[in-house]
Backbone:
């Protein structure tokens, strides 16, 4: 998979606004709003094209096709997973992008200044479309060992949270959020520090840790400020490492992540770098809450890689 450049997919003024909507986002609570949101986007004076997709992979492919065919803008209605899939099609191009927060986790949209209400977010996007305005933000670009490239906007998890997600995705019972709760209990019982090798620009670090997160933005998981100092406009990645936590200490510290005060704990270390390489055995990472690349991988902060309709 190759990164695209602005020359690959120019954004014609007369092209349609392509919209990817996930009707199951936020457990479907905004499903009935979609016609109103589409009307709000159409008020910008551009044709609006709703993209059809039956799976996450198909959604991503459909977005890429829409951009390749000349979409003037891409809008994602859903949570961080929907935004993440759509983002792959416009990262590194000049095609502007609008996230409409309608999921259980809307960290990227919140971190980049969009209103929490979907209607208000559409108003912001429509105004930007009408005025021909966009604002650049950074993205993080991942490169896997096999050369696969992926992008993310919020946070990459490469520790306990990624392991829990992987466990939950393998479980067939129970359904819904209780499956994730059960996965946490199972992995807490198995908790052990793992050996990580981190290369932060030119600095190499060996560390035993249970939490490793690399943030382009500050939060993940619906408002957990795991990388509280991260700024998606500074051209840098924030790395947060939680060291040799035992179960009791991790349970006690975990709630502090919502306020970002966990970074004051003596077992937590923070770093900042333009390029981060992470290596550890048997870990699949999760970026923007989506299953992503296995370790080892290299993450690079790419300034102005995305143009937001704000």
Residues:
């Amino acid at each position: 998979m190759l990164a695209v450049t602005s020359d690959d997919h120019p954004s014609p003024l007369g092209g349609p606004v392509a919209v990817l909507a996930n009707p199951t986002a936020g457990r479907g609570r905004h499903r009935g709003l979609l016609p109103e949101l589409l009307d709000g986007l159409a008020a910008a004076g551009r044709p609006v094209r709703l993209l059809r997709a039956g799976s996450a992979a198909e959604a991503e492919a459909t977005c890429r096709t829409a951009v390749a065919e000349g979409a003037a803008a891409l809008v994602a209605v859903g949570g961080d997973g929907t935004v993440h899939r759509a983002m792959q099609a416009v990262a590194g191009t000049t095609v502007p992008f609008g996230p409409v927060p309608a999921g259980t986790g809307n960290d990227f949209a919140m971190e980049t200044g969009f209103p929490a209400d979907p209607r208000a977010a559409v108003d912001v996007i429509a105004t930007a479309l009408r005025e021909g305005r966009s604002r650049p933000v950074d993205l993080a670009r991942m490169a896997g060992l096999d050369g696969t490239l992926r992008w993310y906007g919020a946070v990459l998890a490469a520790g306990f949270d990624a392991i829990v997600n992987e466990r939950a995705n393998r479980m067939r019972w129970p359904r819904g959020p209780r499956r994730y709760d059960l996965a946490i209990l199972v992995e807490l019982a198995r908790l052990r520090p793992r050996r990580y090798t981190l290369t932060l620009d030119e600095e190499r670090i060996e560390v035993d840790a249970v939490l490793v997160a690399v943030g382009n933005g500050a939060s993940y998981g619906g408002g957990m400020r795991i990388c509280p100092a991260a700024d998606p406009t500074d051209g840098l990645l924030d790395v947060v490492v939680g060291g040799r936590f035992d179960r009791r200490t991790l349970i006690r510290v975990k709630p502090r992540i919502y306020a970002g005060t966990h970074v004051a704990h003596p077992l937590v270390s923070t770093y900042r770098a333009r390029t981060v390489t992470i290596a550890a055995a048997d870990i699949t990472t999760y970026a923007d809450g989506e299953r992503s690349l296995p370790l080892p991988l290299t993450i690079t902060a790419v300034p102005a890689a995305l143009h937001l309709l704000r």
User: Anything to note?
Assistant: The helical segments are 34-42, 56-68, 80-90, 107-111, 118-131, 160-170, 177-189, 247-253. The CA atoms of residues 222 and 306 lie 22 Å apart.
